[in-house]
Structure prediction request, 477 residues.
Amino acid sequence: MASGAAPCGLVAFVKRDCPTCALVVPVLRALADAGPLTIYTQDDPDFPERLDAVDDTSLEQSWKNKIETVPTLIRLERGRETGRAVGWQRGEWESLSGVDRLGTDLPELRVGCGSLSVDPRHAPALRARFGGAILQARRVDLEAEDDFEAMFERGWSDGFPLVPPTAERVLNMLDGTTRRPDHVVAIVPPSLVECTVEKVAINAVMSGCKPEYLPVVLAAVEAACTDEFNMHGLLCTTMPAGPVIVVNGPIRHRIGMNSGVNVFGQGNRANATIGRALQLVVRNVGGGRPGEIDRATHGNPGKFSFCFAEDEEGSPFDALATSRGLAPGSDAITLFPGEGPRCVVDQISRDPESLARSFAVNLRTIHHPKLIIVFDAILALGPEHARVFRDAGWDRQRLTGRLMELLDIPGEELMRGAGGIAEGVPGDLAGAVLPKFGPNGILIVHCGGSAGLFSTIIGGWAGGDVGSRPVTREILR
Prediction:
């Protein structure tokens, strides 16, 4: 029993606005005459009449004792609960109290009413007030009418309005995961600060996430803070790249992600807020702010948020996460260091060879047609283009292999000065053939609306040991 309750005897929780509670008032009087009885009243300190009830209009005792229905009768022995009866049932109350012939003129059974402590109007505030000890983050008091301005002035915002991360909202967000709030998810660059589940939840609240999105955000934070992804380097580069999140698995449908029409655009809450939450963690926990450690010359709108789901059901290929080693059907994210999307238009090609060649000439332009090997790319295959490869029986491996063949480039075209362009690869490359992409440098994802012979390319940042490699992580609740 929570502190403040009677150390022994019976304890009852009631409220005036409950017909069953009103019904059992004579029973409560009989129990009070028979022995120690403490009554907590939730809505009216004067109820029940002629009984010395304890005012629990703050609902502290009701919340701490997990009262879901009133009336509830609890038996205490040496301060510990030994039994509980919910609602009115004569036999249960007699057994619990040891008093016979209770309420013989009352119905045998009458269900109770919902406790005010579990009423949605009160429960979040009660949990924050009485159960918020699990939260360890420093509290900042903000005036309600100025909360956005205050958060903006403190440097928490990416430029858009934020949802104030009240204790109620953070606790509600934490319901989205089974991980402990104090569990350290990652060490976030550039400041190399420990980031707990609670801190991720705070930023997820500010971004506008729902609790069910939190496991995806946690997986993205874990992936971003690996040596392979090198978030610190991605922040420091003057290139316009940022983290791109691709989501696979059944979780896409459970949380309502978009993999179809306008897949990279506005309008889907999960897509928009998951990507934003990752960026806010990097900003607010790791200190990665534009103009400071973030040195992008131009940046790109995806640095607000760039997150989308793959259309696995409509794809002619296996899922991206499966192609990267996870079991089919796994909930997973792949984090890619990418620039903004660019459209590939081919309205005429109806055979896979012609369409592959269209993709190849566009992929060659990533960052510069004469720069090779350093950069990876995502090819986001639109459904109408995907149908061309499905009808021809091409799988992911065949398309990727053919693109790599088509992107073997004669060295003389790549040398500095070739074509009258100073940019290029140094040295005498006459007779050499060099690849545009390194091994596994092209990631193929199926997504987008079903109308339109379009696909999209997302160019990557520097890859390999000097830059960032895509990272795939399973999503764990």
User: Anything to note?
Assistant: The longest helix spans residues 269-284. The first strand starts at residue 9 and ends at 14.
